[in-house]
Amino acid sequence: MEHAPTWLTYTFLYLAAAVVAVPISRALGLGAIIGYLAAGMIIGPSGFGWVSNVQDILHFSEFGVVLMLFLIGLELQPSRLWSLRRPIFGWGTAQMLLCSAALFGAALLARADWRLALVAALGLALSSTAIALQSIAERNLMGTDSGKAAFSILLFQDVAAIPILALLPLLALGGHASADASTLWALCKTVGIVAAVIVGGRYLLRPLLRWIAQSKTQEIFTATALLLVVAIALLMVQLGLSMALGAFLAGVLLADSEYRAELETDIEPFKGLLLGLFFIAVGMTIDFSVILRAPLAMALLVALFLAVKAGAIYALAAGLRMPPQERPLFTLLLAQGGEFAFVVFSTAQSQKIISDEQASLLIGAVAISMVVTPLVVTLVDRWVVRRF
User: Fold this and answer.
1) Distance separating alpha carbons of residues 321 and 94, to the nearest angstrom
2) What is the value of pTM for the model shown?
3) Which sign does the torsion angle of CA 157, 160, 164, 165 carry?
């Protein structure tokens, strides 16, 4: 008897886990994200071990985040995005500086090596775009002060991730000679590619979509929409930049085109499925063996980093004069670790800036924070927000 292909088995497992876990989670009032994360923990290496290639799945499923930001870009016309330039760079810069400084200081007080403290602070200062924006969308908060501020900060973090990765060679042994040149090259490359996406989107994408639409073949238009996002993501990956940032810019450039509604309709189902797969993959990344080897260290690391980061973000919310009833949710959504922290810590590990054990602890702490946050947000919705 012939065995089923591996990809078919994995597809069955992902779909079955989602179909079972998400309705149960929603019935308990916990939301879809917790269901996906729980499904990942159950079928992953630390659960029943039915799926082992976690990193490959995580990289593939990150495309769901890319599609989500493309759709968000479609909702923002260039003029509206330009009006948000001050919140993006003002609030975003303030959040990164405050959180990084607070986490760096806390790590030094804990007598960590300064290089480990800096890498941990920069990685942990980033937040999960997928979980935060999904939670904002579920609660229709994009029009509120907290929703706008969170969106601006998350968008800035996608930009900030580029210089963070460019900074890592500076911390590696022997990387001092080419540090200035590599940093300057990374900055010039980012500006050049963003300009190319803007010019190409303005003068090439719209004529291409008009030509495709003339064929009056729905599946070809859907394929073209996916090709557009995949091509931009591929370009960004080849150049070492953020896929999500490129997709967002492409969406903004098509926000006032006549095909905006059709693009949204075509891409929305793919975005939902891939985001679900992303949350499942995050659940699978939790290495329970690391937690069991040092449970107190892991619990202390998660608690300290969430407390320090939440304190800095709440102070920022107060400084922005955000309405008091919006501050708890705003703080929680940005206090968690982010998916890009996996890349930062893995890169730092490969360059021998931090040890394998340290990288495992940091990655585990980020994954646990991403699992815990939706649960805490649900509790805040029920017990805190209602009091205001």
Assistant:
1) 14
2) 0.70
3) positive
